Every structure is written in C-alpha cells, then in structure tokens.
Amino acid sequence: MDLAVLTRYRVQITDALAASLEGEAALRPILAYHVGLADERGRPANAVGKLLRPSLVLFVAQQLGASLERALPAAVGLELIHNFSLIHDDIQDGDRTRRGRPTVWAAWGVNEAINAGDLMQALAVHEALQSGPVAASLLLNATAAMIEGQSMDLGFETRTVALDQYLRMIDGKTGALIVAAFQLGGAVADADDATQAVLRRLGRAVGRAFQIQDDLLGIWGDALVVGKPNASDIRRRKKSYPTVLAFERANGDDRATLQQIYGQAALTDDDVDWVINLMTRLGIQSDGRITVQEHLDDAAQALDELPFSTDGRRDLENLMDYLARRDK
Amino acid sequence: MDLAVLTRYRVQITDALAASLEGEAALRPILAYHVGLADERGRPANAVGKLLRPSLVLFVAQQLGASLERALPAAVGLELIHNFSLIHDDIQDGDRTRRGRPTVWAAWGVNEAINAGDLMQALAVHEALQSGPVAASLLLNATAAMIEGQSMDLGFETRTVALDQYLRMIDGKTGALIVAAFQLGGAVADADDATQAVLRRLGRAVGRAFQIQDDLLGIWGDALVVGKPNASDIRRRKKSYPTVLAFERANGDDRATLQQIYGQAALTDDDVDWVINLMTRLGIQSDGRITVQEHLDDAAQALDELPFSTDGRRDLENLMDYLARRDK
C-alpha cells in the first residue's frame, strides 16, 4: 500500500526538525540523538521514526489550502512535543531501549534526560510559534492534556481502572497530540470553528483506534515484529485496553485469580498464559478489533464532512487502514 | 527599607498565579502546592515566595507605560517557568525540602514530579502568550538558556571549572530569567531595540550580582538565617563562585590539598574549616563582595539610561541594594 501521507513530506520535515534543534549547548546533540538524526557521538544517523503527527499536520493543512511553509513550524513543534514526552516517559517507565537504541536516560543519566526533555518542550513551542499564536496555543493545550493523561496512567499502576477512565486517559496521553495534528493543520489554514470541530472528532477517533490497536499488539503482537517480548504488557501488568476489559468482564473465580495474579511481585509464564487464555474466553481480542473498526468508521464519517480532494480522502483512508491493521 | 517593587503587585500576581493553575486534573493541586498556594492536601496555604521575577516584569512595564493588564500574563508565565525549573532541580539535586516544605518529588514521587514540572512549563508559556507572541518568544528563549545553564551546572559536578565557564553557566541558569523579567516588561510596553538592549544589560548585571551574593551566602551565610547548614555548598562540593575562585587562585600545596578534599566521597568538619580558611587567605569573600558591588554599579549605569520616573529609579535601586545585601 502506498502511504502517501507518510512519504510525501518526509524530507521536508526531517530537514526542518534538524534545523530546529541546532545550537551550541552540550544538550543539543542529545536531542538530535533522541529524534534519530544523530548517533550517541553526534554523527549523522538515519533513525528518524515514521513522523506520523507532523505528516498529518502538513497533509491536513494542504488539503485545506494552507501553504506548507506556514504549516511546517507547527508540524515540527508537534513532533518535538511528542519526542519530549518520550524522553520523560522512558525515565518514568525505566525503559532502557527505544526502537533498538539506548534511551536518553540510559545513555546520559536521568538528570540530563530531564533537562533534554525540558529543553525539547521549549524548542517545540518556540518552533510552533512561527506558525502563529493560535497554533502555539493549540499545541500548548494539547501538551497539557497529554501530560495530564500521562499522570493518570501512572496512577493506574496501583489500582483497578474502569473503561471510561481508561478512555479518558488515552484521550489525553495519546489522543491529545493526534487531535492536535488535525487541528494544527486546520489552524494554519484558518479553518472556521465548524471545520475545527470536525477535525477534532476525526482526530479523537483516529487516536482511539491507534491506541487500542497498540494495546492489542502489546499482548497479541508477534514478538519478532513488535520488537518487545510476547504479551509484554501483561508481564508489566500495564492497565491497557485488554486488561481493563478483562477486569470489567471477569466474574467469580476468574476475577479472584486475575486480581491475585496482578497483585504478585512477578508473573510466571503460566500466569501470563492464564491471563491470555482468560482474555480469549472473554472475547477481548475480537471485540478489541471490532472497537478499532468502529472508531475508524467514526473517523470515516467525519472525513466525509471535510472539503478534502478525492485523492486526499483516499490517502487518509489508506493511512487509517494502515494504522488499524499494522502489526507493530 | 521599603521594597515597593516587591509589595506593590503582590496581591495581583498571587491571584493571577492561582487562576493560571486552575483545572480538574489530579496534577493541578500539586502545582498549587509547589508555588505555595496550597498545602499537601490542597487546602489554601500562605507560602508564596517573594515573587521577584514577576514583580520586576510589572514594575518595568509600568515604568515604560504599559498597562498592568497586558503585562500580568507575561509576569505569571515567568514565575511559572521559574517554578517549573525548581520542581525539576529538586529531583536532580535530591533535595527533600525547599523553604521548609517537602519538595514535590519527596511528597509525590519522582515520576509525578517530572509530570508536574512538564505541565507547569506548558501552562507558563500558555499564560505568557496572552501578553502576545513576542512575550512568549522571549520567555521560551530564556527557558532554553536556563535549561542549558542547568545542564552546564550538572556537568560541573565532575570537573574543574574556569571562572568564565562559571559565569556562562550562571548567565543561563540564573541570569536568563532575570534578564527575561526586564525584557518582558519592555516587550509588553513595545520598547524599541535600544531600550531592550539597555534592559538586557541591566538584567544581566542584576542577575550576576544576585547569583554571586547567593553563592557567598552558601558559604558564609548564617545557618539560622539562610535555612541551610553553614558552608553547605562546601559540604556538597558545589562549584559555586567562591569554589571556582579558590581553584583558580590556590597554588602548590594548597591546590593539591583542595583537589584532594574535593575528590573525597565525604567531607569532615576539618576539611570544611580548611577550605573556608583557604578562601579567607585568598581574599575570596571580600573580593566576592566587591564583585557584587561592581555588577550593581553596572546595573545603576544602565538604569540611568532608562526613561524611568524619579520614584521608579529609587524603587529599583532599593531593590538592588536589598538583593546585594540580603542575608538569605
């Protein structure tokens, strides 16, 4: 499948990303390392991710008639906000690797990683401000919502979580920046309030489909493809979508066993197998797939209300399809 | 002495600070706690600091003819940036108390403290944006310079530091936000480039006087007044102004002993006494006081070039005098 949305702007975004991080301070090469532009010694590297969020900004902006020039700073700002959050998430989760490379804290220590994330947040907003104060304000609101979602997620580690709380959490932690991608595209095109409302609905639906698919992969994803051990989210006792549903649906003995397993200090392979088996009995994987599809249908409906070109509509549908069916 | 600059705007700043932190998320009360508006359980508290930076913004703005209404968001934004940096500094330094209260990480854990600082940075810039994009841009540049200074300071822990490197570090870590206070006041008054250049010189001089005085207090300050153990900066082997000067000036046996002491895992009371005695022999305390005064003279010269009222000039001179002679 041709993912035009992800390929069309890649060179421009990568160049602007590099320019936004330039500077003399010792911290700058750490930022370039984190986004995949450099290796640990500052030599050029080719490890930039798929640039989903900034690509969406530019795509929406172009569909709504804005120039790429005006949209590019907002797009880069959004990608930097996403990356600042990853630097700090990796500290919080104790993750030593990300996409096969040492995380910033693992390579430079926690203190410098805190600084690196802080600096990246400031550079992100400074960049977005070049697309205008409305774009900067949108990005800041999304950043606040994302951080509040991250805080909710940390709180989930020590208690049972209801489905609506889980959805509120992902609407912040993952959803806010996806929604922001669509809204920033609208903002730089001076979209009216009605259009922004549709873009918000579209972003929310795509964000939920994206995160729930991610959560399904965290349990049923092929270890070799996803790059994490099989069922890693169960081993980490992460309160992801399947786990939240399992706690909602399990009754009697199942519920007691589930609570007992999630209360243990460490899980055996048998524990993990039992949880996966329970989830299968409760129909969680198939229902999860249906839920992802429902959100994509919502997204498609919102898309119908937007004045995109026929080609643009097809490009975005291809991307949504890819996000929902991806295996990593 | 009447410190009009610090008293005149206190109520307005405090109210605007409280309003800027309002919100439903669980993180919000942590932010209100940190700035001293609430206690650990979210009940109102009266522990807001002296609000030096936002008071300077409003003072300069008013002297240059801007309305307080236009200046207030920038002032609050600057205070929030200062406070976000303190939340993260306390994690990095492992400090469990600040001004007699538990630090955020000590009360809520490191992960939530990272989130709290991140959120406060975003809210800060969002607030400043209400004073216009120029103010937001100034604040973001100052934030980046501050973080780069903090990163330099962390790097100093493990090596010898020359005086010019030390000055570059404090120009970032402390100076950037003091300079920003003056420049934000200028920005909301639409000051021209020449006036902004004078405000920058003034801010830089005040910032250096302020930080060097702080460093002198970190060694010779009265423990009861400063609220830290006597000579605490020596015990922590902090590369502060007196220490940097001591390494620059000590020769022969003195230098060898100094290096040996700063290389130890822990310092005895005798070690601390020896270092203080060395600093006295090298004339560092008295030279430090002279240096503070020199920076204040520079500040006074810059002040002469600004179109401040006679009363305004006197108010700022009083404040600078207080900052240079304070004992905590």
Summarize the helices and strands and which ones pair or pack.
2 copies of one chain form a homodimer.
Chain A: H1 4-7, H2 10-20, H3 28-35, H4 52-63, H5 68-93, E1 97-98, E2 101-102, H6 104-108, H7 110-129, H8 133-156, H9 163-188, H10 193-220, H11 223-226, H12 232-235, H13 241-249, H14 252-262, H15 269-281, H16 284-304, H17 310-325
Descriptors for this entry?
Farnesyl Diphosphate Synthase, 17 helices, 328 residues
Question: What do these coordinates show?
Answer:
The structure is a homodimer of 328-residue chains. Chain A is mainly α and 328 residues long. Chain A folds into two domains: 1-157 and 165-189, Farnesyl Diphosphate Synthase; 192-328, Farnesyl Diphosphate Synthase. The first copy, chain A, has helices at residues 4-7, 10-20, 28-35, 52-63, 68-93, 104-108, 110-129, 133-156, 163-188, 193-220, 223-226, 232-235, 241-249, 252-262, 269-281, 284-304, 310-325, and strands spanning 97-98, 101-102. The first copy, chain A, has a two-stranded antiparallel ribbon. The A-B interface holds A 23, 25-27, 84-85, 88, 91-92, 111-112, 114-115, 117-119, 121-123, 125-126, 129, 132-133, 136-137, 140-141, 143-144, 147-148, 150-152, 154-155 and B 23, 25-27, 84-85, 88, 91-92, 111-112, 114-115, 117-119, 121-123, 125-126, 129, 132-133, 136-137, 140-141, 143-144, 147-148, 150-152, 154-155.
